[in-house]
Design goal:
Blueprint lengths: L1 H12 L1 H4 L1 H23 L1 H4 L6 E7 L3 E7 L5 H23 L1 H30 L1
Antiparallel strand pairs: 1-2
Length: about 130
Amino acid sequence: MMNIKRFWTHLTTSSLLRDRAYSVPLGLGILAQIALWGLLWYYRTVIYHPQREFLALHYKVQYGIDFLAPWYYIFAIPLLGILVMIMNVIVARYGHLHERFGMYIALMGAAAVQVILTWALYLIIQVNIF
């Protein structure tokens, strides 16, 4: 329990979180990640339908649906977003010590990936509605 308190104190008093070049892109990425999980929660009846075993996970305009998978494969999208966010936060933490511009690029890239994944998840859900 003491380690958690010490970690939280270190986290909240860190100069890294007080730096706006770090905290703003990180906050945007976290908000986009929350939106990903919110989309999954809001459309849960579309994603998991007892009569439908598979979801369309890829759609091409020329060919139509070309990739079907079990319904739980849709969770790979937000999990991929979490993985990208964690890797870029680690890179940004290293970049904060050595190169500020690299830190900013890593975190803005993570936030951009989160937004793109949110849009992709929304479109996949829309394909499965119709």
